[in-house]
Amino acid sequence: MRRPPPHNWLFVFKVIVESGSITEASERLNVSQSAVSQQIKSLEDYLGRRLIIRSKKGVSLTDVGKHYYNVIKISLDRISLATDQLFGQGHRGTITVKSNYSFVDVWLSRNLSEFHDLYPNICVEIYTGLWLTDFGGLEHGIEIRYGDGDWNDANCYQLTDDSIFPVCSPALKSEVKNIENLLDYPLVSVMGNKVGWSEWFRHHQVDLKNTPSRLYVESNLLAYKSSMSGDYISLGIDSLVNGFVERGELVKLDFGSIKTRENFFILEPSENSVSEQETLFADWVKSKYVFSRV
User: Fold this and answer.
1) Which structural domain, as residue segments, surrounds residue 11?
2) Is residue 294 pLDDT above 50, yes or no?
3) CA angle at 135 for the pair 131 and 136, rounded to the nearest 5°
4) What's the whole-number mean pLDDT along residues 261-277?
5) 188 with 149: CB under 8 angstroms?
6) Domain assignment of residue 2, yes or no
7) Quick one: 248 and 177 in the same domain?
């Protein structure tokens, strides 16, 4: 693929067309007429085609020039809009939130309208990931992580105080008679979670000869959806699974729960300054302290 012409040539071409003359374009660009003429000549030489026709009345476009102008105008306008949204006036009221995907799906996406009711002029950009490495270090913005809270790159505020317990579909519950009976069914483990089936069975003094899990998935939500649609049994984290239980999509098996070593945290950069809008968002999430109250 041929490299595109330099951006400044394209920008000068656009200004010439929109101003209607070399003279007017030079005034808009605050450069000499000879500089404008040289830029458009360089562009035409590079493309090997004539784009404009000069006359005493101004400039007109060749057929290929008309087509090329339409393409350039759309592209440059999109770049200008994106630049303003990300870095300019349009971005001053924007905050960036990087979040664990499960948190966004289960809670944030369902409650964010309340934040916008309070602060309608703040734009929120949400980026999701499954693993801590999806985002790298926290250099700016707000992040919501699931883990043990042992991070040196940010100020952490714990949002949840989670426990884990077995969950399954309503249809399967009547078949699971006792705790040992769990081993007769395929168990789901979530890769990356530090507390799982081995710890849960050990706490309830169930002797395991082999690793019980038969299905490994990347996220807790995938585990719960597997349990809703089949005979899989998952370990529910109460801050994530309670909504599914309340809606009757999953049921809790009453064989006991244990505290997990991981919870949801909201993080703010420890060294960089946090904007006023980011502070408002972080304070709003903290004020909900949603999951620990469920």
Assistant:
1) 7-86
2) no
3) 105
4) 80
5) no
6) no
7) yes
Tokens 């005034």 sit on residue: 27
pLDDT at position 137 is 52
275 has which bridge partners? none
pLDDT for residue 42: 93
264 domain-assigned: no
Band of residue 186 on the pLDDT scale cut at 50, 70, 90: very high
DSSP string, the chain: -PPPPPHHHHHHHHHHHHHSSHHHHHHHHTS-HHHHHHHHHHHHHHHTS--EEEETTEEEE-HHHHHHHHHHHHHHHHHHHHHHHHHSGGGTTEEEEEEEHHHIIIIIHHHHHHHHHH-TT-EEEEEEESSGGGT-S--SSEEEEEE-S--SSEEEEE----EEEEEE-HHHHTT--SSGGGGGS-EEEETT-SS-HHHHHHHTT---SS--EEEEESSHHHHHHHHHHSS-EEEEEHHHHHHHHHTTSSEE-SS--EE-S-EEEEEEESSS---HHHHHHHHHHHHH-TGGG-
Residue 63's domain is classified under what CATH number?
1.10.10.10
Amino acid occupying residue 175: E
The residue among 271, 38, 261 whose CA lies nearest residue 139 is: 271
Label residue 174 exposed, middle or buried (CB < 10 Å: 0-12, 13-18, 19+). Answer: exposed
Q: Is the pLDDT of residue 272 over 80?
A: no
**Residue 294 identity (one-letter amino acid):** V
* Total-model pTM: 0.65
- Tell me what pLDDT residue 93 has: 64
Q: What is the pLDDT of residues 101-134, one digit of tens each?
A: 889 998 899 899 999 999 998 889 888 876 655 4
